[in-house]
Amino acid sequence: MASIIFLDSPVCSGFSYARDPKGCDVGDYSSSLQVQRFLNKWFTHHPQYLSNPFYLGGDSYAGKVIPLEKREQPLINLKGYLVGNPITDPKFDRNFRVQGAHGFGIISDQIYEAAMKNCKGNYVIPENQLCAEVLETVDSLISEIADGHVLYKKCVVATPKPIDDATRRKFLLEESIKPNEAPGRPTVDCFTYGYYLAYFWMNNKMTRDALGIKGGTVSEWVRCKKELPYTQDMPSSIPYHLNLTKRGYRALVYSGDHDLQVPHLSTQAWIRSLNFSIVDDWRAWHLIYHLICEQFDICNNKGWWSYCSRVPA
């Protein structure tokens, strides 16, 4: 049905690496160009796939770099792209956190009304003291929940401590990337416990061998390398979304409805800013599956397992 290439980007994230540590110092534009070069080389070495319809996809911050499309040889049969809860422009991404928090019941009507009255629609950079104070209250209340998914328990994210100070940043670039400490351990009832387990699984020799990781390149896999010297040099990706869609590329923009980091309200707002005509009326979309468990077997020391198939309802 389809083939999927998973790419660690930007360079030096995941198992990707640079021979010179300075090669890890990239940004929105440069990392996008690296992805283009990778794809061009990949299709050059696998020309049998050139005629296949090709789509780019990514979540969250990928909303900035996925639309940076540039046609080069070999001519890839690019048909479109998909982005989930995409970051595009701060005036949209962060400006709907107040409305989202109010909709989720995280802030009261009184706090929301005070924000509307004193901030006058600008919830990113407060222009007066009263606005700053009410936004501080909003941020304080949001900090008590997992803003990536408001229904989840607030847990350790299972990410090593970031390297923020200038001295450590300089060391990172001039010397080498040193292994981090193992991530903090969330409790088993945390969604992020899977991230914690992933750290040990991805650093297991059998896993690395199965993935074909070259020896001597990446000493340690880390889920989120927040210390990477990445430059956010694109103010807004919305013009690129507009350019691509006007040129006929298909776009699927989807949102999780419990994300307060990039609320679905902000996604709807920047899409509306493109001023496209609405072809179909707003309607509900349903995807229902029957889970049919056909067999359970606890014999022969196999433990519990089930053979299941999913069929459309």
From TrEMBL:
Pfam families: Peptidase_S10
GO biological process assignments: proteolysis; secondary metabolic process
Domain of life: Eukaryota
InterPro entries referenced in this protein's UniProt entry, alphabetically: AB_hydrolase_fold, Peptidase_S10
SUPFAM superfamilies attached to this UniProt entry: alpha/beta-Hydrolases (SSF53474)
GO molecular function list: acyltransferase activity, transferring groups other than amino-acyl groups; serine-type carboxypeptidase activity
Family, similarity comment: Belongs to the peptidase S10 family.
PANTHER family: CARBOXYPEPTIDASE, SERINE PROTEASE FAMILY S10 SERINE CARBOXYPEPTIDASE
UniProt-recorded name of the protein: Carboxypeptidase
